[in-house]
Amino acid sequence: MSGSGMRAAYGVVSGVLPTDTTEDVRTRGAGVSAQVAVLPVGSFEQHGPYLPLVTDTLVACAVARELAAAYPVHLLPPLTVSCSHEHAAWPGTVSISAVTLHAVVSDIAASLRRSGVDALVVVNGHGGNYVLGNVVQEASARGERMALFPAAEDWETARERAGVVTSLLTDMHAGEIETSILLHAHPEFVRPGHESADFTADDRRHLLTLGMSAYTESGVIGRPSLGSAEKGKELLASLAESFEPYLALLTRGAEPE
Length: 257
What we know:
Elements: H1 3-10, H2 22-30, E1 36-41, H3 55-70, E2 74-75, H4 98-114, E3 119-124, H5 131-141, E4 145-149, H6 152-162, H7 176-185, H8 207-210, H9 229-242, H10 244-251
Parallel strand pairs: 1-2, 1-3, 3-4
Helix pairs in contact: 3-7, 3-9, 4-5, 6-9, 7-9
């Protein structure tokens, strides 16, 4: 089988990894007061029968690409396996421990600082990566420049701008937002079935104890039938605008005297 045939057969995602050379990074860094890197963190977990296991990674990468297109930031390749323990009941899901994810992101930040990159933005595409908040809090307490993006408020602003009908509570997994972003950024990976897969379960108070399988048989919680490429485009555009104060905060005081 040819290389292109193998890529098609195995559903390999193209256009996700950054293609900068070291000279590209050097040139971009010379034109800013403080270098900021953007690290997409996704997951490898079930997203129902119509979205790929790599959905959260694709979402994080789509957001990070929007940021890199709008601001002078250093785009890093994604972390594609994270903390998906609540999805363990479904085949294909792979997780690492929160301790490991904490260590990996912290090591990446330390490596960047050694090479002259002053700040790191962690773009999180998976809600179960709770530990990323701890990573950022601890780094900030040490005086390091780090931020977690997007916040819930950024998603809410984006939801309203894009005309997403489903609330953030209801749109928990493989729903309107994720389906919309993939329909815009990677429509080739959205399989038939999202049009009739709506399922809601707003009361999920025992999720950490019981996992997702206690609340959904299909793996879906949300209204994917309402997703559209137009909404996905507007979601990403809104998030890019919301990023500006994050960048200003991370670079504040970095100008040479």
